[in-house]
Amino acid sequence: MRWCLTAVLFVALICSVRPDEEFPEPSLRIMAKSTVYNVGEIKGIFCKGQNLVEPIHWYSPSGKLIEERSTKNNRVFVERKIEDNGILVPLIIHKIKISDGGNWTCKSGNLSEVREIIVGEKVKLSDTNVTLEGEEGKSVKLSCEANGYPAPVVVWYKDKQQIREKDEPKKYSIKPDNTLEIKKLNHADVGLYVCKVRQKALSHYTEKTVHLSVQHKPILYNSDTQMIYTNQKYKTEEVYAILNDTKNVTCSAIANPAPTYRWYRRQNGFDGDPITDPDTVVTSEDGTNSVLILRIRDDSYYGEYRCAANNSKGMESIIFHVNPGSKPEPPDFVSLAGANTTALTFNVTCSTCIFATGEEVSPDPKNLTVIGYILQLAPAKAGYPVDWDGAPEYRVDVEEANNTLFTVGPLSNGTVYHVRVRTRNAAGNSEWLEVADAKTTDDAIRLTATIALVIVTILVQLY
Ligand SMILES: *[C@@H]1O[C@H](CO)[C@@H](O)[C@H](O)[C@H]1NC(C)=O
Ligand SMILES: *[C@@H]1O[C@H](CO)[C@@H](O)[C@H](O)[C@H]1NC(C)=O
Ligand SMILES: *[C@@H]1O[C@H](CO)[C@@H](O)[C@H](O)[C@H]1NC(C)=O
Ligand SMILES: *[C@@H]1O[C@H](CO)[C@@H](O)[C@H](O)[C@H]1NC(C)=O
Ligand SMILES: *[C@@H]1O[C@H](CO)[C@@H](O)[C@H](O)[C@H]1NC(C)=O
Ligand SMILES: *[C@@H]1O[C@H](CO)[C@@H](O)[C@H](O)[C@H]1NC(C)=O
Ligand SMILES: *[C@@H]1O[C@H](CO)[C@@H](O)[C@H](O)[C@H]1NC(C)=O
Ligand SMILES: *[C@@H]1O[C@H](CO)[C@@H](O)[C@H](O)[C@H]1NC(C)=O
Ligand SMILES: *[C@@H]1O[C@H](CO)[C@@H](O)[C@H](O)[C@H]1NC(C)=O
Ligand SMILES: *[C@@H]1O[C@H](CO)[C@@H](O)[C@H](O)[C@H]1NC(C)=O
Ligand SMILES: *[C@@H]1O[C@H](CO)[C@@H](O)[C@H](O)[C@H]1NC(C)=O
């Protein structure tokens, strides 16, 4: 029975193989890697036939038979090539047009294959990096001529955030031609605008960047709090200064063009002569601020000082009331509370200091609240005195009177630091309190295993 089945299979095998050798299967295939083309290109799309009886013909999307090249027909035509293993009929299209897009058919007898050709026009932006200056209160239009086919998706971004007209219709308007209009310009509109253009069908992406600046008159702000002084007519700021100390009064402005600053000592409500002594007035080169360095030698230095910042767009001024303020008490106890490879944490307490409680805003000038500490860390060098000059200072703020832990860093690993700490209030700083040396841990790998040991060691050294 088994040999009988084998014989049947053998015969079936022969029967299924033989006809192929004598009458090979006809086939037809369009050979095209990609069928997305850019307008204006020259394209050849090959149709390959094997064992065909009838000739190969190409038909356009509208069903028109494509002829061979002639003087009349020289943009879209076919060629005929015989190869060892069949016939190749390339369809050649010169200066391909958007209207050439569609389903093209290669046909031989009743065999055929259809390929969809997409002809697109990639968006080419002419200026991709533009600088523009707008004027305060006016509007400005940023163009993005994204002409292409299929129609691209165009999205505007400001400083990496997408602009949505419907979220801020009073500020932005995006026109049908993708122009972005920014209305009522102010300093906050300064920034980097990017028009991102995408044509998914063509796998094409391009973008244009616009650097927008806005000319506006100076806007004064408090450089400590970064708060802009509200738009009142007379801007004032209370400042406290310690007798026999130096006080820096800083006048900061956002302005374009960069402003010029002038300082005046005011007596009885009037400006005196401008203060121009370069040892007293130091204005930053970029015009972002001007510092009045007051050396409070006696009570006569207290009083009013006016800072005026002006540029071609206008002038703003602020009056600083310089009041006597108390020097804060230094901290009375500082200990190392934690260390790792890059940071040290200190427990700083000041039992004689007064801390702000809740929303208390107006301090008693004789008794100003402590706003924070300054920690200074100088790397220890054996055999050398401590080099405090140029040692980095870390300013920390007291957020809650009961939180006395402050972390400073980044620091070097495995390094011993000399440490000193002083208290800050609105008028100035206390004397320094020098504390025990502190050491960062050696390296990250041993950290977890040895952190407890290191802290214990340092604490032992401290006591
Ligand atoms: C081409 O043919 C495909 C499949 O039949 C169809 O989905 C497509 O819409 C056709 N394209 C055009 C431009 O007619
Ligand atoms: C296609 O045509 C061939 C002869 O040219 C014929 O033998 C075959 O049966 C046809 N096939 C179909 C699917 O019509
Ligand atoms: C674009 O222009 C700005 C200013 O004109 C220039 O600083 C920047 O390098 C330019 N960026 C590129 C990518 O060309
Ligand atoms: C300020 O300095 C002067 C002279 O240097 C001194 O007489 C005076 O006591 C000092 N005042 C204070 C409050 O430190
Ligand atoms: C005061 O300002 C001057 C000039 O900007 C600066 O060199 C100095 O370090 C400042 N002093 C203090 C105590 O901030
Ligand atoms: C601003 O100051 C400059 C000189 O620093 C002066 O020439 C100009 O007139 C001033 N402008 C205004 C509006 O005050
Ligand atoms: C060290 O401690 C500081 C503060 O606790 C932390 O921010 C930092 O990530 C730590 N560094 C390492 C290397 O663990
Ligand atoms: C900080 O030091 C004070 C005074 O020695 C102590 O009472 C307090 O518990 C310490 N705080 C922490 C978090 O170690
Ligand atoms: C400062 O305030 C604290 C607590 O409010 C008080 O104990 C202290 O006597 C005051 N010091 C002065 C100089 O007014
Ligand atoms: C510190 O005090 C504030 C209220 O003043 C409280 O909400 C907070 O829980 C306290 N924190 C600690 C660590 O005791
Ligand atoms: C500091 O860290 C680096 C790499 O993390 C290590 O090579 C070096 O030995 C460490 N230095 C000390 C003193 O632990």
TrEMBL record:
Gene Ontology BP term (one): cell differentiation
First and last residue of the signal peptide: 1-19
The keyword Secreted belongs to this UniProt entry's keyword annotation: no
Fibronectin type-III domain sequence ranges: 340-443
Matching Gene3D superfamilies: Immunoglobulins (2.60.40.10)
Pfam families documented for this protein: I-set, Ig_3
Superkingdom, taxonomy of origin: Eukaryota
Domain Ig-like: 26-118, 121-211, 218-323
CC annotations in GO: plasma membrane
UniProtKB keywords: Immunoglobulin domain, Repeat, Signal
Protein name per UniProt: Uncharacterized protein
Organism expressing this protein natively: Mythimna separata (Oriental armyworm)
